[in-house]
Amino acid sequence: MKRLNLFLLAWLFSSPVLWAGGLVTNTNQSAAWARTLTREAALGVDAIYYNPAGLGVFSNGLHLSLSNQFIAQTRQITCDYPFLSGTPKTYEANLTAPLFPSIYAAYKLDKWAFSAGFNIIGGGGSANFEAGLPSFEIPVASLVPMLQASLAPIDAGFTGAGYPDPGFRNVTGYNLDASFNGSSMYMGIQVGATYAINDLLSVAIGARYVSAKNTYEGSLSGVTIDAPEAYGGTQAPGNYLRTVAGMPGLDAMTVALLNGTAAALDGATADADLNAVQRGTGFTPIIGVNLHLSDMVNIAARYEHRTKIELTNETTVDDVGMFPDGAVSRADLPGMFSLGAQLKPLKKLTASLGFNYFLDRPAYYGNPELEAGVPVMAEDGISFVQANNETTIDNNAYTLSASLEYKLLGMLGVSAGFSTGNLGVNDGYQSDLSYANKSNTVAGGVFIDVGEKLTINAGVVYVMYDDYTKAESYQPAGFPAPYDFTNTFGKNTMIMAVGVDINL
After folding, report:
1. What is the mean pLDDT of the chain?
2. Which of 116, 246, 319, 358 has minimal Cβ neighbours within 10 Å of its Cβ?
């Protein structure tokens, strides 16, 4: 079984490309959000997503919004497993999404408003990991002490019999080549209707159709060890054991054991490729309520139901059997509840507060691995068990945010926002395959009113994540005890956005 190859492809399967919001939900859905972070009670055109009931306060006519975000995220994992080359070793991945659009339209006629929107509700970019990850390099790095330990008794047998030390155990390093690219895109098309019961209260109902697509392309090749030059130097580990087995002076049992181990290593370190696509769809019911107490105070709430999504594999190449063509797996979006307030204590000043609560634990999108991060080995291949969210998540995720907007001049205004939150995961969730860190976010930007019908929004967001250190262990084959080590997970995200709102 190609166990070493498994770790690379398992990572590809388990690492969504996420930006802002909950564990799997993007809430960065407009350029106005990128300059404030707080839109839960907003009365801009992006209320179609953030506060659909707020459309009841709009003026009659057509309202449009178009924005795009450029998103860059860096992930860093530092591992101090003792046999890694250059330990402690840092693995870095750069993830980008140059296109992250949000499009909204609404038409208000007296008490009714009808709306539609398009956004990327989950995922939204591609990941390029140039240096790999600890979870698949550790088994390769462990080949060195494994070979040293297994060949040392053979060397001792020669020296004990009075012969020169052959130095079979003098394996000094390892090598591997890995290339992989993964992308994730959960596109949402939303429609809704809003009714203004009176000047004070509006309600909304709607739905979002979600189309999910994940793509995985990866390869692992060139697994070699640095053997003594006298026996061929750098080569495949199986070839080296066969070279040792061919040396004179070895008994038949040792030769058989070396050749058998060589055959096993051939399978474990063989080149592997993956080319697979997963597709699925889901449906999200949405309701909202808006309380417009006055031109100075607006309060809003929104609830989105859990989105059940079943992904079906469309596989071209799958050398390790992780993506059987036609197989189905779950990848839900959780339900969420939002609550917000917008206050205008002065004509030129707007203050906003927001709260989002994500119902992660009842959803079904657990990592495709066991709680300990170890794959299940089956007789007919390698299979995975999707972890129950309730075992890897202690508390549902939440975010709290606040912002201020101030109109400097007749046209120009500035804004700034802050958000904090916690994703509620425990050690069972955290691995280099997929990890989530507590974060704090700052944002700032400008808005320009061009007449009464057009507003330009521009903003910059920086997400700062707390490092998370997890104690782990790994036991190389044939070793009496595991080796303890730590993985430290870190990341940061930068978002730049620009958009335009039009009110006709």
Report:
1. 86
2. 246
